[in-house]
Amino acid sequence: MPKNKLGTLTKADIISSLTNHLGFTKKKATDTTETLLELIKKSLESGEDVLISRFGKFCVKQKEERRGRNPATGGDMMLAPRKIVSFKCSGKLRDKINSKRK
């Protein structure tokens, strides 16, 4: 499905697929994609996890303050607490990914 050199699926690729496979107009495909991504972003921003059955779960996790290293100077520094988003794929997706490697 990805059409670029890096083998990465982009938002443009998703819009193109909606247009080609479902017969959506480019505007409808763009609006649908943007709406879906906005719903996911708002849920994550509010601290909610996003579960997509048979695909995986996006989880918001809190990272505590911790000691780090400044790569430019090599000196020690404290990294501020922050939130991150992690992704855990579903068992079904993991099985499909691993079955293609054989």
Please give the oligomerization state of what you see. single chain
* Strands ordered across the widest β-sheet: 1-2-5
Number of helices: 3
Note poorly predicted spans: none
Instruction: Report on the biggest sheet.
Output: 3 strands, antiparallel
Distance between the termini: 20 Å
Instruction: Note the beta-strand portion.
Output: 25-35%
**Radius of gyration computed on alpha carbons:** 19 Å
Shape: elongated
CATH architecture of the largest domain: Irregular
Q: Report the structural category.
A: alpha+beta
- CATH-assigned fold name of the largest domain: HU Protein, Chain A
CATH class membership of the largest domain: Few Secondary Structures
Overall number of strands: 5
Helix percent band: 40-55%
CATH evolutionary superfamily of the largest domain: IHF-like DNA-binding proteins
Number of domains: 2
Order of helices and strands: HHEEEEEH
Average residue pLDDT? 92
Would you spell out the secondary-structure blueprint of this structure?
Layout: H1 11-22, H2 26-45, E1 50-52, E2 56-63, E3 66-69, E4 76-79, E5 82-89, H3 91-99
Antiparallel strand pairs: 1-2, 2-5, 3-4
Helix pairs in contact: 1-2
Description of the structure:
The longest helix has 20 residues. Helix 1 packs across helix 2. The chain is of the alpha+beta class and 102 residues long.
Please sum up the structure shown:
This protein has helices at residues 11-22, 26-45, 91-99; strands at 50-52, 56-63, 66-69, 76-79, 82-89. With 102 residues, it is α+β, with helices and mostly antiparallel strands.
